[in-house]
Each structure stands twice: as C-alpha cells, then as structure tokens.
Write a structure and sequence with these properties.
With 205 residues, the chain is α/β, with parallel strands linked by helices. The chain contains seven helices and nine strands. It holds the Pfam family Formyl_trans_N.
Length: 205
C-alpha cells in the first residue's frame, strides 16, 4: 500500500486524537488547517486552537484561513497536491473547489450515526434526545451538510450515567481509529461506499 499525502482539517480537542493517529499511520501530512486563533472567554489573550498547538508541536505547517471561499485560499489548498483531505470538527464550510482538489476527495469523521444528528453538536444532541446509542460515521464529503456516502460507522452505547465529557472522549478515540482504517482501505482500493438515506427525520430527532 502506497502512503497517501494528506491534508488534515480540524479545530477543537475532539480532533486531536485523529491528528495523533494520522501522525503514526505511515501516511504523510502536507499541512494542517484549523480555525484562526480567537480570544478566550472573558477577554483573555488570543490562543491557538488545540489542533494548532498539537500540529505545531509535531512540526506540521499550520494554516488558519478565516474562510475557504476566496480564490487565493482555494489555490493555496490545491497547490498542496494532496491525495486526500481529512476533516474532523473543522468548523468551516468546504466549497466545491476545495472538495474537488484532492485526488481522492475529502472525508469527514462525524460524531453520530448518520443520517441522525447531522450538523453541529451531535454529541450533545444525542444525549439531550435520550438516545441509547450513538457512534462515529466516516463519510465522503459532498456539498450537502453531512449528506455524503458512508464509508464506515461504528456504534457505542449511551448509558444512563454516561456524561457528555465521557462520550466526547470515547467518540474522539473511535474517530481516530475509524479514520485511519478508512484511509488504509481507501489507499488499498477496498473501501465501499453506501449512500445515506434521504429525508430530514434525523434533523428533528
């Protein structure tokens, strides 16, 4: 299996285990994209994101564009010559030009069993809805909101004593494992895709 040239795109602590797993995977990371530094609560100093901190410590080039809609940002992204982009809780929309730039497209690790809980805050929404299970879905990204074909998924139970923090950490670790497995299968040409069901029932819980 030939190693892939990756771009990683993530922002919060949830995405850090996946970045760590990719560092150890044998694939190369051309650059790490994350959201720009922002002021901490109550007017404290501007701080880089958790992903930026970890990427800089590992020696990866870090890019923090406020948007990917500008032509110059899209040109810079395409110039990386990536085989694949991997996103985990990045928080910015990837326009069509960015989605199309990597040779093998873009994949995303989403913290729910799609099509349930598309969009933001899927962990909190699952707990608030009283779901008895959730999980992680690896999907190929398209122009919709978490609507692309499913590449892999794995469920985890939500017990009556499960906290949001515990579930966050469990799903972050699961995302890391599933992303690496999916990339390896994609590189080997053995990864199957399953279209998501249509409809919006998932958005209403």
């Amino acid at each position: 299996m030939k190693p892939l040239r990756l771009v990683f795109m993530g922002t919060p602590a949830y995405a850090v285990p996946t970045l760590d797993a990719l560092c150890a995977s044998g694939h190369s990371i051309a650059a790490v994209y994350t959201q720009p530094p922002r002021a901490a609560e109550r007017g404290r100093k501007v701080r880089p994101t958790p992903v930026a901190v970890r990427a800089e410590a590992a020696g990866f080039p870090v890019r923090t564009p406020p948007s990917l809609k500008r032509e110059e940002a899209q040109t810079a992204f395409a110039a990386l010559g990536a085989d694949l982009a991997v996103t985990v809780a990045y928080g910015l929309i990837l326009p069509p030009a960015v989605l199309a730039a990597p040779r093998l497209g873009c994949i995303n690790a989403h913290a729910s069993l799609l099509p349930r809980w598309r969009g933001a805050a899927p962990i909190q929404r699952a707990i608030m809805a009283g779901d008895t299970e959730t999980g992680v879905t690896i999907m190929r990204m398209d122009e919709g909101l978490d609507t692309g074909p499913i590449l892999a998924a794995e469920a985890v139970p939500i017990g009556p004593e499960t906290t949001g923090g515990a579930l966050h950490d469990m799903l972050a670790a699961l995302s890391a494992r599933l992303v690496v497995d999916a990339i390896d299968a994609l590189a080997a040409g053995t990864l199957a895709e399953t279209p998501q069901p249509s409809g919006r029932r998932d958005l209403r819980g």
